From TrEMBL:
<feature type="compositionally biased region" description="Polar residues">
    <location>
        <begin position="77"/>
        <end position="87"/>
    </location>
</feature>
<dbReference type="InterPro" id="IPR000719">
    <property type="entry name" value="Prot_kinase_dom"/>
</dbReference>
<comment type="similarity">
    <text>Belongs to the protein kinase superfamily. CAMK Ser/Thr protein kinase family. PIM subfamily.</text>
</comment>
<keyword id="KW-0067">ATP-binding</keyword>
<dbReference type="InterPro" id="IPR017441">
    <property type="entry name" value="Protein_kinase_ATP_BS"/>
</dbReference>
<keyword id="KW-0547">Nucleotide-binding</keyword>
<feature type="domain" description="Protein kinase">
    <location>
        <begin position="100"/>
        <end position="348"/>
    </location>
</feature>
<protein>
    <recommendedName>
        <fullName>non-specific serine/threonine protein kinase</fullName>
        <ecNumber>2.7.11.1</ecNumber>
    </recommendedName>
</protein>
<dbReference type="Pfam" id="PF00069">
    <property type="entry name" value="Pkinase"/>
</dbReference>
<dbReference type="InterPro" id="IPR051138">
    <property type="entry name" value="PIM_Ser/Thr_kinase"/>
</dbReference>
<keyword id="KW-0723">Serine/threonine-protein kinase</keyword>
<keyword id="KW-0808">Transferase</keyword>
<keyword id="KW-0418">Kinase</keyword>
<feature type="binding site">
    <location>
        <position position="129"/>
    </location>
    <ligand>
        <name>ATP</name>
    </ligand>
</feature>
<feature type="region of interest" description="Disordered">
    <location>
        <begin position="36"/>
        <end position="97"/>
    </location>
</feature>
<dbReference type="GO" id="GO:0016301">
    <property type="term" value="F:kinase activity"/>
</dbReference>
<dbReference type="InterPro" id="IPR011009">
    <property type="entry name" value="Kinase-like_dom_sf"/>
</dbReference>
Amino acid sequence: MEKSLTEKQTKAKKKKGICALFRRTWKAVKHAILRGNKVSPYPQPGPSGLEPKALQDPADPQPGSSGLNSELMPDSDPSSLRPTSHTTDPDGSVPFVSQYEKGQRLGVGGFGTVFKGTCISDGQQVAIKIIPKNKEDDYIVVSGYSKPLIKEVGLNLRVKKSPTSPNIVQMLDWFEEAYHHMLILEYPQPCMTLNSFLKFNRRRVDENQARHFMLQAVLAAKHCMDRGVAHNDIRLDNILIKTDTLELKLIDFGCGELIEGCDDEDNQSRGHVVPELYVAHKYALSETVLSLGNLLYRMVEGQSALENNPKFDCNRCSKECQDLIRLCMKYNPDETPTLEQLLEHEWFKQGDDQE
């Protein structure tokens, strides 16, 4: 009798434990389902890190929906993303998987993974950058958009405003998923990074070639600054060279920053950027000019300049080129030249690229 009562109590405890486990499991599954279908109005994205870009202004300034598996957690491998089978989203927008096909991985950076992609409607080749959301990600307010946008998208929208620059890879579109942002980027072909280009040319190029690239790099940087954007990461791997035309294109705004007080619409109405804006943001300008100086030094000397007194091979580098590099490498922001002053330098008036 006592044994029978003990067995009943044991069974009751087991049954209660199973029910509790079932309730906890169902609660977790229900939470995951709801979370997978919901995008926070103030999401948490993450910067970027590789290949090309271009953009179209949406009629309703909201991102599309990626259609990618929404239950992939932020720390999962982006290469494991798989599209879902639906063709339209609840809000009526056309999802990512109905517009683009994701192909092979092109590269991985600190802020995202870039894949080759194809536009389904016309077969256009694009680059697809997948950026995991992160609670530390920054959002910025962009005129005409109803909510703050992930910073990289917002900066691309500013840079893309007409007139666009041929020396910056453009963002074509973007999509937002529960745990990721997807940027659809221009994919110039055939192309390679400037780093790869230099490796194919024994680590350096002659001054005429360097002048051709440097001029385009300065114009790209100026275009960004004129629209209130500091790229902050101008280097060999963030520059593409279109190998059939030798056109240079700056990529990757993952490290970029909005320059407060530098309103691109005001600048366009004036037709130029007033000098006071550069003075007010001298540190952003100093970083940009220093990066450009290092870029030029790397092209003509085949190595990076890690000091403000770079060494030169006088047989390979003209006095005018040396002067421009030293001008760029003034570490005191108060001595930094403007980008307009760089373009007016005597070195740009020499050689085959005189304009």
